[in-house]
Amino acid sequence: MADRAGSRDGPAPREIRPVGGANPAGRHTAYAGAMSTLRGRVAGLPDWDRCAVMGVVNVTPDSFSDGGLWFDTELAVKHGLDLVAQGADMVDVGGESTRPGAARVDEGEELRRVVPVVRELAAAGVVVSVDTMRASVAEEAVEAGACLVNDVSGGAADPDMVPVVASHHVPFVVMHWRGQSIDMNNRAVYADVVGEVVDELARSMERAVAGGIDPERIIIDPGLGFAKDAGHDLALVADLPRLRALGRPLLVAASRKRFLGRVLAGGEGAAPPPARERDAATAAVSAIVAREGAWAVRVHEVRASADAVRVARAVEGAAEAAEAAEAAGAAGSTGASGAGVASGTTANTTGTK
């Protein structure tokens, strides 16, 4: 891992001045330097000028919605390329299921699953993210061409993760996390889910920055479905502005998750539809969060969400045009009024002479 000769030598970081300030509650540092647009920018990644779409490639036999479909390297690479053809801006490659109750995969097996897929997709020009909680996997994936590390633990599961990400100067997803998947449902206890998630994310961000990660390379993720029930997930989706007040671009990963199944099931006790039948609901969430300023959505089925975020951006553009026209009209009216007053004053002055 980090003791390999030269493995920690990355490109020199560009000079970036962190911008500090308080969030509306006055409790945390808000790293707002990159938030010059609605959804913000991430140093080291393209600016898509809309909510981006991150397609998912699970190189696992046991992921909750598509386990086993892309377990072969060749099939996984083909699927990643298909996702890009369908509209994905980047592809997130993972080799360990984090579904509720999942046991951990050993390091060697995770490396075997992930690194060849990352290497081939990156060689094809795909913007690749690696989904891992292990610093060793993150490091080898970055060396194979990944340009983003997506750690569901936000650096908490492996003490080497933050130093490795910092040394390679790559963007880092800090997700809200309360513990391993094997028992995370027991931790879904909140008095104020949005407030507590914001507080806990802020502390994770502060640890990442203290460990050397450039704040302009940090992305935050509320961790839908991780130590949360359906009500918690819906509350977070409904209150994205409080999350965005942390001052970093926001990744929302709602795809096919349990809370959508609960919504679609309807009545109490009714069986939710299978995960693969929740893609329309996923696209609905993609449209909602894109309009609310999410930086990216992470989805299994790309095409519908790619369409949804583009429609959301068109609506956003129409609203911006209407606001600009209204502002221009108000400015013109003020100018005409001012000119009339000046003309009247001149006339009156001339008459008195």
UniProtKB/TrEMBL annotation:
Give the EC number(s) under which this enzyme is classified.
2.5.1.15
Matches recorded under PROSITE patterns: DHPS_1, DHPS_2, PTERIN_BINDING
- What reaction does this catalyse? (7,8-dihydropterin-6-yl)methyl diphosphate + 4-aminobenzoate = 7,8-dihydropteroate + diphosphate
Cofactor(s) for this UniProt protein: Mg(2+)
Which segments show compositional bias classed as Basic and acidic residues?
1-17
Coiled-coil portions: none
Q: Where is this region: Disordered?
A: 1-27, 330-353
Q: Which domain of life is it from?
A: Bacteria
Q: Which UniProt keywords apply?
A: Folate biosynthesis, Magnesium, Metal-binding, Transferase
Main EC class the enzyme belongs to: transferase
Keyword hit for Transferase = yes
The pathway where this protein functions is:
Cofactor biosynthesis; tetrahydrofolate biosynthesis; 7,8-dihydrofolate from 2-amino-4-hydroxy-6-hydroxymethyl-7,8-dihydropteridine diphosphate and 4-aminobenzoate: step 1/2
Q: Which Pfam families match?
A: Pterin_bind (PF00809)
Domain (Pterin-binding): residue spans on this chain: 51-310
Asked if Metal-binding is a keyword of the record, the answer is yes
* Family the UniProt entry places it in: Belongs to the DHPS family.
Show the PANTHER family listed in the entry. Answer: FOLATE SYNTHESIS PROTEINS, FOLIC ACID SYNTHESIS PROTEIN FOL1
Q: What is this protein called?
A: dihydropteroate synthase
